[in-house]
Task: structure prediction
Amino acid sequence: MPATYTICGALIPIAEGYTTVDVQIEAERIGAIAASLPVVGTLVDATNKLLLPGFVNGHTHSPQFWQRGLIRQLPLELWLADVFDSSTRDLEKIYLGALGTAINTLLSGGTCLMDHLLPIPNYELETIAAAVRAYKEVGIRAFIAPMLQDQSFAAGLPEGMKSLALKPFPLSTGEVLAQMEAIITQFHEPEAGIYIAVGPTGFQRCSDELFAGCVELSDRYNLCRHTHLLETKAQYKLARERYGGSAVHHLYQLGFLDDRTSLAHAIWLDEPDIAILAETQSTVVHNPLSNLRLGSGIAPILKYRQAGVNVAFGCDGAASNDAQDLLESIKLGSILHNVTDFEYKHWITPRAAIAMASTGGFKGVNLADQVGSLTVGQVADLVLYDLTNLSLLPRTDPVQLLVLGRPAQAVDSVWVQGRRVVADGVMQSVDGDRFRQTLLHPAQEHSSPQFPMIHQVEAHYRTVMDLPECGFR
Amino acid sequence: MPATYTICGALIPIAEGYTTVDVQIEAERIGAIAASLPVVGTLVDATNKLLLPGFVNGHTHSPQFWQRGLIRQLPLELWLADVFDSSTRDLEKIYLGALGTAINTLLSGGTCLMDHLLPIPNYELETIAAAVRAYKEVGIRAFIAPMLQDQSFAAGLPEGMKSLALKPFPLSTGEVLAQMEAIITQFHEPEAGIYIAVGPTGFQRCSDELFAGCVELSDRYNLCRHTHLLETKAQYKLARERYGGSAVHHLYQLGFLDDRTSLAHAIWLDEPDIAILAETQSTVVHNPLSNLRLGSGIAPILKYRQAGVNVAFGCDGAASNDAQDLLESIKLGSILHNVTDFEYKHWITPRAAIAMASTGGFKGVNLADQVGSLTVGQVADLVLYDLTNLSLLPRTDPVQLLVLGRPAQAVDSVWVQGRRVVADGVMQSVDGDRFRQTLLHPAQEHSSPQFPMIHQVEAHYRTVMDLPECGFR
Result:
């Protein structure tokens, strides 16, 4: 049973400006919000602190924690070859990667994450178990979408199956779905804050049968759906080649898109695609850092908002966003789009950005009716920011400072499902310094590591993407 | 006389990978770099630390320190109305703003900044004196370019002089230049690390005579030249209206462009303009955060690099980049351009980015022959980063982690002109906590402050920029 708290004197944003309130947390929920409340349970002094609902990191890949700073400057399809070649096969590193990702999320304002998690081949259940162990230990709310595919790497490239002799994917669609069901029955535990979601990696390496099987599992077990969508121009070309049209329309026909579906990236969409996302109430998860790092493009976020498509923010994995700071994603993901529209009245304000990160994020994982706003009766996923932190001074507009500044260690306290998991900036259930020591060894510099698979793919990629044959790298 | 140091066991990047060296600092300069050196002076243990040359914050406006988080989401021309309306007129705040900007720069890897400083009217010399006091106290290398203009706000807008009834600029060109010369003779003191530069604000509010006068002062006193250049589409339109052609060509004809000239923003340039920058060896200072925040555009940085134009990084003022973190500018300023060119072999690598920030930055202020690289004989502007900081773990490629990650408090030590101004992450000559306390009061939330001047300008701006007459804000 979580403890009871009275947060006293917290600044909260209201329609016009700010006000100062007390907030009671009782039995996991926000029990009361008022100007002055009797102190019940633990008193938390929130003088000079800003209280906001927790944010959602709507898309990440926790094992890539070990690939931070490792991968060269490459577009997704070639970067992916390096990522696959350097992925960890160590279950302890899976656990530590999830731990690190959860800590980064909590200390940057997130109370919930969507881990699109690539299992270690032949150790699929053990991989999920390692991540679940970490998330329970830290106390974050975690969606785990095991990344599924039933087609080879070659299938993910335009003309890939014609020209690339890469090994086929080793499991059948039925085997992949059977594993997925085993994961669901073993690990899906919403009351503990651990949710399994169906996560086909993306249409580019998944058959229609795999998508259909995921839809069936999602319906039967009431699970969220998550996938990569049209992250690159190569994927846009591939969809035209494979379906003779739009990947979004194809997923729509397969019944994959609904109000429990979140779609990572969603960069190369046309107007009719956007209308489908609005109609199906699907959520776009915007990963601006990764989209720049991989040269994928600028997602049409202002168009999504104008069309009524729900947009959340994500960090993406550390191999393509070498930091895992949700506030950084929120900042860049809001200001980036100002250069796409001269009509400044369309620009995303800092207040809109925090609504996208909280309400929008929880809507994307189908929990917005229970969590994501400062409302009495909602489950208490709350974050308290220290406004006396140097990175938030001098004090002007606190939400503008938080979103447009570069807060460093400004998170004072975090509650997840009413449980205080961060207090005074310190993780409560994990020894942060011991975790840091664990990461210190071995401290061996990797410089421009050379991985083999890219050499099988690069010439083909350059041909299909109309890049000159001889690079000068 | 600065002290002598032996930095022992520092990791430094070399052509292939990294190596570990000792570095001696003697009489302001790098005295020796070798695998093993006798300890002279103060021993600095650099085990698990990365040593790099200091970076240059090539463009900022220190008084905007007080406008962090304050200004709404607006394009430059309207934002500027709010900025002018909310600029500080308090000399103590000028001093504290310069102090804060210098601290932010040092703790994010910079040893030098270019402060394009708007003096308080009628207190021009006092304004410069306040900033100089702060920079000397902190011990940063500072260029101060007093921001000069001799035309009104209205002149800076297309058709502005025709349609806008704003008050004319109160000083004549001669008066402005006389003030500038007084500032030079009183404050230009290179041996103390304080350099005055000529800084006409931009062609949009400066006459040809003012530019000519600045060129003459620059030549006579051997000063750097600094100006805003073609930051917005409105400025591009204005140049066509005023000169019948390119602002770059016009500045070239005025003799303003040379290898001591740095140009902030440089977004709306055509191919012939780029050729002029290359020919004159001018430097572009890239301010990516500000350019997104104000919707100004994405500067064609990859084209500049291909044309041989020197590019440095800047933060710009805190009213348009509410953080002042140089590493954030370097990160965004390198990855942003990946979406502008599918040829990934053109993308800026982290190693190229740190060269732009150090060598490129010092070239922009005409000091690259003396400072900006890890070379024996160069003046010691050096920064040591702690690789055991959680934000730089797990250890993969240290330079990739530094540039592509989100380092928080990773700066261990900073030397400027051989003087250690940061040690163990702590400012040596300024009490950081006392500074923070100074900023705490008054802590009054400002929410959506309403400033008057924008109402005189917005309708005109919307008309000349072809935006619909009735906004729906």
